[in-house]
Amino acid sequence: MYGDISDPELLAAVHAERASLVVITVDHPTTALRTVSFLRSNCPQVPVIARARDLESSVRLLDAGATHAYPEAIEASLRLGAAALRMLRIPADDIDLVIQGVRDWDYKPVLEADQEQDRQG
Question: Which of 6, 14, 18, 66 is least enclosed by beta carbons within 10 angstroms?
């Protein structure tokens, strides 16, 4: 089927309630939010994983009911940072520990750094 993923009629037609999992990767934040909200209201048993542009969008998707929401900007930065550390010959276990720590804390270290930058400038 083809159509607007946030359209309740389309989601009903594809029987979204029967899905084992829904992964949302649309580029339009409003569409993603509408879709997550609909799924949470009408298919609460279906886990939803969503891609978000940034941390703020990720928080909104989680608040709307996404099971997980991954901010692509931060994830890309983490991958770049990990590559840089590997090139500097930092032990892989140390890199993994730092990267996983940021993820495990729901990107809190990144959020705190952003807030500190806002206060300074």
Answer: 18
Q: Is 99 helix (H, G, I), strand (E, B) or coil?
A: helix
Residue ranges with strand state E in the chain: 22-24, 48-52, 68-71
Largest CA distance in the chain: 53
Amino acid occupying residue 49: I
Neighbours of 7 (CB within 10 A): 14
Give residue for tokens 């983490």: 78
* Pairing mode, strands 68-71 and 22-24: unpaired
| Rounded-to-integer distance, Cα 50 and Cα 5, Å | 13
Helix axes 29-42, 55-64, angle to 10 degrees: 20
pTM of the model: 0.72
> What are the pLDDT digits (tens) for 53-108?
988 898 899 999 999 998 888 888 889 999 999 999 999 999 999 888 888 777 76
Angle 54-23-13 (CA atoms, 0-180°, nearest 5)? 130
